[in-house]
Design brief:
By secondary structure, the chain is mainly β. It is 9% helix and 33% strand. The radius of gyration is 20 Å and the shape is globular. Keywords: Aspartyl esterase, Cell wall, Cell wall biogenesis/degradation, Hydrolase, Secreted, Signal.
């Protein structure tokens, strides 16, 4: 049997070039322990210890515990791997909020994306901000614990080439700001009620669980996504496998601008999804260029008979350009630790 297994293994590597047996090495590990058993007591102090212009992977290992702090990874501090002891055991939390705004932050451009403080309090409410390229997080949770009717971001990422594995994102409004860049989420949990995944990102969410915490008594459904696409970018939020579950009622998404693109592929949808499926940002919005699509989904919320007439109908062949890992990956995923 061994020769057969070897042949199959070689075939798989040739058939799917994204698979790799080689991962980037970690040059250094920094340990964070709020009880004093590590190199630093806080996550931010560990980030501060990474040199500007860093070009080698540094692991920041966060021991079990709940760390109440706001953390920012500056754009000059790439190649950081943040690793916890499991998303049920390790979390970073804060209760920042964007008073004075009732929707995701105002649109951004390439010129002002690094000056988020000057744009909207939504963006600066984030518990955890990643402005750097080349970032990985594993086995850790991020929480915005603010309990109110305003944007309160758990994680904001606007660096390119960011990946999250077995992580959890908890909040209510604007939980995960997938702002800019190419990102990959695998086996993650994202919880929220209103626009809880939003931004201009070009991202694949594979085998992720999207949990609505919209109150069951609410007359207004929430929105799982709020996506926009800037200019000629190939941005989209792509959900591949996984599930939508939880309480209340939810639209799959609303169009943040006229080029919004969201695809659900083979996702199991609970009955919380409203029959219309999708929503406009404003009643008079032009949605002729919006690409909202569902392909091969299942579950009581997946019926498309009542969907809005402007939903795009894609074949399995047409959806492949979104769900293929090459939509976001030109080799950078296999160059991460």
């Amino acid at each position: 049997m061994r020769p057969f297994c070897l042949v199959v293994g070689v075939f798989l590597l040739l058939r799917w070039p994204a698979l790799s047996v080689a991962w980037a090495p970690v040059a250094r590990t920094i340990t964070v322990d709020q009880h004093g058993g590590g190199d630093y007591w806080t996550v931010q102090s560990a980030v501060d210890a990474v040199p500007y212009g860093n070009s080698q992977w540094v692991r920041i290992y966060v021991k079990q515990g709940s760390y109440r702090e706001k953390v920012t990874i500056p754009s000059q501090k790439g190649f950081i791997l943040l690793q916890g002891d499991g998303s049920f055991n390790t979390d970073i939390n804060f209760d920042g909020h964007g008073y004075g705004t009732d929707a995701p932050g105002i649109p951004i451009t390439g010129r002002n994306r690094r000056n988020l403080t000057d744009i909207s309090p939504t963006y600066t409410s984030a518990t955890f901000r990643v402005n750097a390229d080349n970032f990985v997080a594993r086995n850790i949770a991020f929480k915005n614990t603010f309990n109110g009717g305003h944007p309160a971001v758990g994680v904001l990422i606007d660096g390119d080439k960011g990946a999250f594995y077995d992580c959890a994102f908890h909040g209510f409004q604007d939980t995960l700001c997938d702002l800019m860049g190419r990102h990959y989420f695998r086996r993650c949990l994202v919880e929220g009620g209103v626009d809880f995944i939003f931004g201009y990102g070009q991202s694949i969410y594979e085998d992720c669980t999207l949990v609505s915490n919209m109150p069951a008594w609410s007359q207004q459904p929430g929105w799982v996504t709020a996506h926009g696409r800037a200019g000629g970018r190939s941005a989209a939020l792509v959900f591949k496998g996984g599930a939508i579950t939880g309480s209340g009622r939810q639209y799959l998404g609303r169009a943040w601008n006229e080029q919004a693109t969201v695809v659900f592929f083979q996702v199991n949808m609970a009955g919380i999804v409203v029959p219309q499926g999708w929503d406009k940002w404003t009643p008079g919005q032009d949605v002729s260029q919006v690409t909202f699509a569902e392909v091969g989904c299942s579950g009581p919320g997946s019926g498309t008979a009542g969907r809005v007439p402007w939903e795009k109908h894609m074949s399995y062949a047409e959806v492949q350009r979104f769900v293929d890992i090459r939509f976001i990956d030109d080799g950078w995923l296999s160059n991460q630790p």
